[in-house]
Known about the structure:
disordered N terminus; Aminopeptidase; 50% helix; elongated; 4 domains; twelve-stranded mixed β-sheet; Helix Hairpins
Amino acid sequence: MKKIKQFSxxxxxxIKGNFAIRIIALVVLLHGIFIVxxxxxxxxxxxxxxxxxxxxxxxxxMVGLTLIYLSFLLQRRKKNAWFLTIVVxxxxxxxxxxxYNDIRxxxxxxxxxxxxRTILLPVFLIALLLINSxxxxxxxxxxxxxxxxxxxxxxxxxxxxxxxxxYRLLGESGFHQKISFFSAFHLTIDQFNITNSPLKTFDxxxxxxxxxxxxxxxxxxxxxxxxxFKPIKDKFSSQKNSNLRFRQLLWLQHDARSEDFxxxxxxxxxxxxDSTLKSALAYRVNRGIAVVLGGPVGxxxxxxxxxxxxxxxxxxxxxxxxxxxxxxxYMELFKLLGFNYxxxxxxxxxxxxxxxxxxxxxxxxxxILNRFNKxxxxxxxxxxxHDRAVLNELKSISDDWLKRGGHLERGFAMGYFSTEYMNLxxxxxxxxxxxxxxxxxxxxxxxxxxxEATYDLLRFKKDALGxxxxxxLIKLIEELKHSGYRRLNLGLCPxxxxxxxxxxxxxxxxxxxxxxxxxxxxxRFYSFSGLxxxxxxxxxxxxxxxxxxxxGLGSFTRINTALMNIMRKTRH
Length: 572
């Protein structure tokens, strides 16, 4: 992999936002609006034109509309927009220089204002764009552009056939003159009437034909123009080699945890490696947000360089990087690199020895165990590969649980029920007195973490004995104890502990206030407090989890929307 130059937020002002870039975009936008409004007013007031195709006579109108479109792309530092803006202004400047005397005579009462608008402003903007050329680095998807050209070529061929046939058939009746094949071809191509004068129409068919031809022509040009600036897509081709290399880094990382398993499963992620291939990130892109799952893996000394290189690539692809579900151990690193942080909840981690020695002796757990023993419930730990009949029974339970609770399968940061997934994990099942499976929980115990286990899917039948979830978790903790594990990760409780570290109101951010309100008032949509109470009775250690990102509430909202889209896309 080609080595990438060190990328520092301190050395590159464009990451923080450059004033010159914003000024250029604003001036181009205002200039485009001025040209469009001026051209339309001139045509309406002076020429009394009522038909849509006649408004294309002045090429200035197209220049103005193009500049308005380009101004938004310049704000995003698109390299293609930078190049095309220079070309448009060069053409605009050349046309104005050639016709300057005619323009000045037509608007002699405006004097120096015409000189500024038609000559000096384009020269100034071209110079400013050239000076800031190094700051326009956002790439576009050339493959999509090539595809768009192919489609547009087909559209143009159809357009030519339609135009030539229309002019030839409607010649004498619609335009009161014979139109040769060459003239019809010329009229069709030159819809802006740059090299010829528009034909006068004499009936409704001819007017409809000219207007429809112009609209189709504009649509084809617009499609090509939009495709020219389309961001590079995040293409999810085969990632087998990257996935294998990422797994190897997890094996080499001494503090990798069981929940890092979700960075390699589901297989819906891309992997970004630093220039030495010694550290990496697992991510996906949605709506311009590069969502990274957890922190980096691999050699810790390379993490800063890794994030710098990833940020550079994100900037070049018009993506905004966001790191979700991260531990606080990365706090100082992300602060150093200019990221904001936001606590999004806490993860519950049970100390297995403490639970077996103390917690399980509580009256609550004694009652549960007594009740399930009296009901002749039993349990068994099943190791993969699982029997097909067992998998079918587990699927039936899972489907019933999903329908009954209105749940959805999720991906990216968690697993979802599938034969392939279940055969990667152990499954603890609970049997009733008839030896029927009533509930199950699957356990993530990857080879790279022999200390902490994680469970993922915990599902049960409608007619299972009450508190079957607790029964399964008690037995799971006992099994993990026998296997030498020290901790069980119960997963994230969203929005819990948001205010724990905030000492006064001045330290609270707007996002803190929004999340605190959601936690206090959102139980009718999602039982935040109920989930916390369920996990807290296991007397876990609570670990803070964070998002690291750029921007404020708007960016945070976009990240959450992108995350929900990514997780929702992977379903059973």
